[in-house]
Fold:
Amino acid sequence: MSAPSSARWTLHPDRALPADPATRDVARDLYAQTKDLPIVSMHGHVDAAVLAADQPFGDPAEVFVVPDHYLVRMLVSQGVPHDALGVPRLDGGPVETDPRAIWRTFCTHWKLFRGTPTRYWMEHVLVEVFGVSAPPSAATADQLYDEVQAKLSTDAFRPLALVDSLGLEILATTDAATATLADHADLAQRGWGERIVPTFRPDALLHVDRPVWRDDVALLAERSGVDVGSYEGFVRALEQRRAAFVERGARATDHGHLRADTTPLSAAEAGRIFDAALRGEASSADADAFSGHMLHEMARMSAEDGLVMQIHPGVLRNHDARVFGERGPDVGYDIPVAAEYTRALRPLLESFGHHPGLRLIVFTVDETVFARELAPMAGVYPAMKLGAPWWFLDTPDGMRRFRELVTDSAGFYNTTGFVDDTRAFFSIPARHDLARRIDAGYLARLVAEHRLTADEAAETAVELAYELPRQAYPKPTPRP
Structure:
């Protein structure tokens, strides 16, 4: 193992701030007013079971490498096989199981992440959270492994302690509509019910052409206690599950359909498709029509029960069928596609865009639609807010482009502020830190151009970082 360096690794305090000295000075002042604000993390994929168990995290490879599809996909693109990164095979076949070897592989390829947001997030985590002594490299891999492992083994780095130390005011998990929510019940009994909340994700039930859809419908019947032998029963069961989520503190729903279509069907046609699906006879056209109809139904339910409705279409999941068959989902093969929103969302917005009970947040990974479609709609429909750039767009330049593209039409207050989308628990503060720096830089330019006063920019910076996310995800207030 290498001897520890006498100089600790530090990060530049002005990272991601504007290069122009005059604008940078203004941005520093703005960032200073937001950097320590609490974090509102309303779209996460941290497993509620991990939080409820509150056991020490595993080794550095298990925490940082194996589950991180951002990191894995870059290494795979450069010829590092999934097996070498310990990504499990569905058939239980052999993969690398030595965590130190997996960590070494990551550190040896550290330069591949130059210029990517993964590098920014990892640097922030390693330096600001773990205080490691040196950047990753082949020479420092074992030293960093030991330093990170030492921290992970302490009580201060258990999940619930980190919710406090990382400044997470509220953390939302994402949960299947059929989830028992037992972990959330456990957390609530221990006083965490207001800070760790579930999110209702019904996607598996709304796509009737999935091979296991009928199994999921049977589970819905079991969990809801509602007979789902008919379309009417199916809708009642979904409403019952939404009510169970609200009771457990949920603030929002989450919908990751391929398309944004929200065209409603008649009850008779929806029932026909549902019955055909139960028989295994629904066509692909039927399935597409039913999923669009159900998004319209989800908007109706949100207008009634107060759950914020989040939509993020436009991702073709599991692009490589062979890899999906070998490894399953979430290993880096979800690829964006062009998305259309103006016509697709029109039925939903005509029905509920002015409804006082609906809060609709629309995300995209197709930034070509920010200025052309999404910002103009968010800039006129009271129910709609524009979600933050995320996934392939929550990068320094992607977030700058977002502000430049949407502010003209939507302003700041028809957006949600920053909403992260991560499975990597430790990267949550890193992502919020980067967003706060980018917004400080954008606002500083408006000050330098005499388009905002310094006081207006400071107020806006705080609202983007903290107030707008809180306002975008209020506690549900069901309507009579």
Remarks:
- Residues 284-305 form the longest helix (22 residues).
